[in-house]
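Hey, resending since the last one bounced:
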Amino acid sequence: MACTTILVGKKASYDGSTMIARNDDSGSGHFTAKKFVTIHPAEQSSSYKSVLSHVEIELPKNPMRFTAVPNAIEGKGIWAASGV
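The structure tokens again:
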């Protein structure tokens, strides 16, 4: 299964709403339960360290709120895909 994202802007929707629809790829084809979370500025770190490459970067001092869809089971997967 490949990742697919469909984005609809407020000028393209009937009622002016914005929408996102996305599936999450799985090389094995197995379903992994997800959860929808909102990350607020106070919860965000001041730096990011890559799990794979270990590169670390400083993040902006004034972050914005965002949403993400990580795996529902902690420790199963490293990315919170489908964020807006």
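The chain has a mean pLDDT of 84.

Sorry for the duplicate.
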